[in-house]
């Protein structure tokens, strides 16, 4: 009776803290996200005056980051390591929050090709980790990191179910941290509701495509899932190669980011003046609105993103992965004779899933962004994409569950 | 390279077998299910001529079952044990299929209060287990059982996503058998598609309720989730008590089922002539169509179901749990001033979830039966119901994950 009593008190405490984490993380997410959108708009308008400074700004930021960032410079790797008892990491320094926010703003202001979820996930994990430590809940360290990831992701994208599955399935490939789902759900819904209340814009597009069920459709979707899975794997592999290549040839991180920044600046100007800078939301919008998508958009976006992240700019990979998937989906739609918005939506979800070695998270991203009735299609394509990519992930500290 | 090659071949073999299992299980599911519905209709029309024979038929069936059923008489317990390496059970006898089918038909023809998913899950697990053994895939025994459960459940209810989560989360409380999800999904979608193609009727009801989001709604839903969780716990606890009470006082299973059968016959005649016999689909329909639901319907349905199953009649508990949840939901709706179809739907899903110690499965049952846009509400209520019931389950062989 006493054990059961303690259990209930503990569960209630975790639920209350989950709400608190969801709300506080979403407030920072909203401020970060709104300013990021303003910055992105500003860059689009003044692109040619900003892009030349990318390398310079990167160098200054890196200098300060290396000098004062302490373990925060490990980024997502530190978040993953804090969940692992075999490492000695038990706490994420609070400075990770301002560093990741400012670093990401700078990346986007000066035209790097990157995401934004890195910040959200890291600030969520940091706040949650600190709250757990304040309450001396050492045994729940992993649970708190998961709650924080869910809150950060949900507060930014306003897709609480996807955020819950992402947080619980991303740490170890082949294993779901099921026990934490109830708390992650509470944190994610709190964060998502709060961000929406605070007016953070959510990307969503209601699919209207009628896709009649047939055996042929299933065969096509499996083929499409394989292709999206391969693109996700290629992205993850190229990101690894980019990191090792630049680290090997330019061991000094400041020199590295200067060389990389110059390459990105030149390429970004030559390639349609900034079409591939920033999050890639322009490519996403063009994909769904039927505007021009070039057959090679997704290839260039992959190239610039793996260089941007590979040389040390902050941000993340998720929104570029959405853009890569959606624009590649448009290309595939004409080959497979399916509605372009339908295939773009499948790519949006499944390329992200393959590159992060998850399949429930992208399936629910798909349904939360494009409509719940398409869940079976998202599940099929994301599962195939997940099964195809047995090896490559964008998270170098992600572990694999022995089967 | 070779290991990765073997891995892909193995994955493909499992996927192909999953499709095969899905299709073959759904064919038997459909035959079983269609005849069961005919039998149920026949009983409703001729109730008074059939109900007196319940004890007699139960006794004869039990005599044959005990004599020739071998380990199949363990029912769901055998299915659970076959997944556990610590037991010596490695194979489910094929005779479980005809025994569970005929036994369940007899229960329903003569007016017992029971479900039907026991048959579906057991025949799915049996077929899948045999296929795995034929291919000597001993290391995948648990995966095959999970695939079979998913196929059986999906083939019967045509809710493939719920079936996948049910199969992967029911074996061990607090743990999801995540690795098997892709295969379970394939089996479940194959089974569900095939059953639908073969014309097995699916219960679904499109909710039209507008429930404006507010803090008050959240508070109400948490309270409702707690109450549904308690009802599920009470059902599971009473089922355990019923089993131990009858086993203690009537150690002979034939005497036991005769005594139980007579009690059920008398009670069923006195209580509105058969209102509480069978699956309880009449209560479900009445709940959603706004017909009369008595405040005590759910209590009597609990009582008759735990006696029917407790004394040894075959069938299952799931559809009665749906009925108990829906009819209790109607009662709660007037107390909480919410649309009755909305609360009935929440009860339909979450009471089943609490009694089986699952929360993803019932959340998706809810969305697959009542509409995807209600997923957040189902997740909230089912998660609360799951957290409330820390102890009681209808599956005596279900294990608990050490936390």
The oligomeric state is homodimer
- At the first level of CATH, the class of the largest domain in chain A is Mainly Alpha
List the domain count of chain A as a whole number: 2
| Secondary structure tally: strands of chain A | 2
Overall, the morphology of chain A is globular
The helical percent of chain A reads over 70%
Which structural category fits the helices and strands of chain A?
Answer: mainly alpha
Question: How would you describe what is shown here?
Answer:
Chains A, B: It is found in: Membrane. The structure is a homodimer of 403-residue chains. The first copy, chain A, is globular. With 403 residues, chain A is an all-alpha fold. In chain A, helix 1 runs parallel beside helix 7. The model of chain A has no long low-confidence stretch (mean pLDDT 95). Chain A is built from 17 helices and two strands. The first copy, chain A, folds into two domains: 196 residues, Clc chloride channel, CATH 1.10.3080; 186 residues, Clc chloride channel (Orthogonal Bundle), CATH 1.10.3080.10. Chain A has a two-stranded parallel sheet. At the A-B interface, helix 1, helix 8, helix 9 and helix 17 of A face helix 1, helix 8, helix 9 and helix 17 of B.
């Amino acid at each position: 009776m006493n054990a059961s009593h303690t259990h209930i008190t503990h569960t209630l405490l975790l639920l209350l803290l989950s709400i608190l984490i969801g709300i506080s993380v979403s407030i920072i997410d909203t401020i970060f996200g709104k300013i990021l959108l303003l910055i992105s708009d500003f860059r689009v308008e003044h692109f040619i005056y900003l892009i030349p400074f990318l390398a310079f700004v990167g160098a200054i930021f890196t200098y300060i980051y290396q000098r004062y960032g302490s373990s925060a410079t490990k980024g997502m790797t530190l978040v993953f390591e804090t969940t692992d008892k075999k490492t000695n990491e038990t706490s994420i320094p609070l400075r990770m929050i301002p560093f990741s926010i400012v670093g990401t703003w700078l990346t986007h202001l000066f035209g790097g090709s990157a995401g934004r979820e890195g910040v959200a996930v890291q600030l969520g994990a940091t706040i949650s980790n600190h709250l757990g430590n304040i309450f001396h809940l050492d045994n729940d360290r992993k649970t708190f990191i998961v709650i924080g990831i869910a809150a950060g992701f949900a507060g930014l994208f306003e897709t609480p179910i996807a955020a819950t599955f992402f947080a619980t399935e991303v740490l170890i490939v082949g294993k779901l941290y099921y026990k934490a789902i109830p708390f992650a759900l509470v944190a994610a819904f709190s964060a998502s509701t709060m961000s929406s209340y605070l007016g953070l814009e959510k990307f969503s597009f209601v699919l209207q495509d009628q896709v009649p069920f047939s055996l042929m459709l299933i065969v096509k979707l499996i083929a499409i899932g394989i292709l999206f899975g391969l693109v996700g794997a290629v992205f993850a592999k190229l990101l690894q190669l980019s990191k090792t290549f630049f680290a090997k040839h330019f061991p000094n991180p400041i020199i590295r980011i200067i060389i990389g920044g110059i390459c990105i600046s030149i390429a970004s100007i030559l390639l349609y003046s900034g079409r591939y800078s920033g999050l890639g939301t322009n490519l996403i919008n063009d994909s769904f609105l039927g505007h021009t998508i070039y057959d090679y958009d997704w290839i260039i976006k992959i190239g610039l993103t793996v260089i941007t992240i590979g040389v040390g700019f902050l941000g993340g990979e998720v929104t570029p992965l959405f853009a890569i998937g959606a624009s590649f989906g448009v290309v595939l739609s004409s080959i497979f004779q399916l509605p372009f918005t339908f295939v773009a939506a499948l790519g949006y979800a499944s390329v992200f899933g393959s590159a992060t070695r998850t399949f429930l998270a992208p399936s629910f991203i798909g349904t939360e962004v494009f409509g719940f009735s398409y869940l079976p299609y998202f599940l099929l394509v994301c599962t195939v994409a997940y099964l195809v990519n047995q090896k490559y992930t964008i998270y170098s500290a992600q572990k694999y569950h022995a089967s």
